[in-house]
């Protein structure tokens, strides 16, 4: 026989609904999808299912029914999760419904003190961790894999083709992921011109720079053409571009 009296039944049910309602008040105040009534009903349902197992006198049933409640709330929470573009909305709401069900299970077990502690923790997470999360979001994030890298492109060409090749190089450096930050030109005595261009690369540097080198290597007059990555911008960034030969 069960020892659950009508008074205990009403007390535990009231505790479960009340704690679920407290969680729902905060959600309603924040204008979330699952507010006061939804969280109260979830807590009430979880409480009633576990209380039923105790009312029929099956001592092993409450734990088994509680596991079923967890699975059922998972389906309910999945219904409030929405996909918007590349993001997902409603995860906090689904997690809150799950917590409301857990509070109801605690109330049905008769441990009203634990039920109140669980409710206080859920409310503290929403009220206290919200500003902490916003503060963290304001901190600038640095992604080492997404940071710009610096590279230098070396070009040696015939003096007669210098103007043409410099124009092609400048045009190629305006491609996707590339930004020229400096240019240095040196004219040697053997009718050769050495051009060194400092480049800032966003994304994968190898692909963008190899495309640039492949394009310029097809031009006549190119004697040498290669690139390398820099640990930091070199002196070419601080030197003004050389003026054309007069």
Automatic annotation (TrEMBL):
Residues 13-134 form the MgtC/SapB/SrpB/YhiD N-terminal domain. Gene3D superfamilies: 3.30.70.260. Keywords: Cell membrane, Membrane, Transmembrane, Transmembrane helix. Its main location: membrane. InterPro entries: MgtC-like_C, MgtC/SapB/SrpB/YhiD_fam, MgtC_SapB_SrpB_YhiD_N. It holds the Pfam family MgtC_SapB_C. It comes from the Bacteria. It is a multi-pass membrane protein. Residues 153-227 form the MgtC-like C-terminal domain. One of its GO terms (cellular component) is plasma membrane. The chain crosses the membrane at residues 6-24, 36-53, 65-83, 114-132. It is found in: Cell membrane. Belongs to the MgtC/SapB family. This is MgtC/SapB family protein. It comes from Streptomyces roseirectus.
């Amino acid at each position: 026989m069960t020892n659950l009296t009508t008074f205990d039944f009403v007390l535990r049910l009231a505790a479960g609904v009340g704690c679920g309602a407290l969680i729902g008040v905060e959600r309603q105040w924040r204008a979330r999808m699952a507010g006061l009534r939804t969280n109260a009903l979830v807590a009430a349902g979880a409480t009633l299912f576990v209380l039923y197992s105790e009312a029929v006198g099956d001592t092993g049933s409450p734990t088994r029914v509680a596991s079923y409640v967890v699975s059922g709330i998972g389906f309910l929470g999945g219904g409030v999760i929405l996909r918007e573009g590349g993001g997902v909305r409603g995860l906090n709401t689904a997690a809150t419904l799950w917590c409301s069900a857990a509070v109801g299970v605690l109330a049905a077990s008769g441990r009203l003190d634990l039920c109140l502690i669980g409710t206080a923790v859920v409310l503290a997470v929403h009220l206290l961790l919200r500003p902490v999360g916003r503060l963290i979001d304001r901190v600038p994030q640095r992604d080492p894999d997404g940071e710009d890298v610096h590279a230098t492109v070396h070009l040696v060409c015939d003096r007669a083709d210098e103007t043409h090749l410099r124009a092609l190089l400048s045009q190629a450096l305006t491609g996707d992921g590339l930004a020229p930050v400096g240019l240095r030109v040196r004219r040697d005595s053997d009718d050769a011109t050495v051009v060194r261009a400092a480049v800032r690369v966003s994304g994968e540097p190898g692909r963008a720079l190899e495309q640039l080198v492949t394009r310029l290597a097809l031009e006549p007059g190119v004697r040498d053409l290669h690139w390398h990555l820099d640990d930091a911008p070199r002196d070419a960034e601080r030197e003004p571009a050389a003026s054309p030969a007069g």
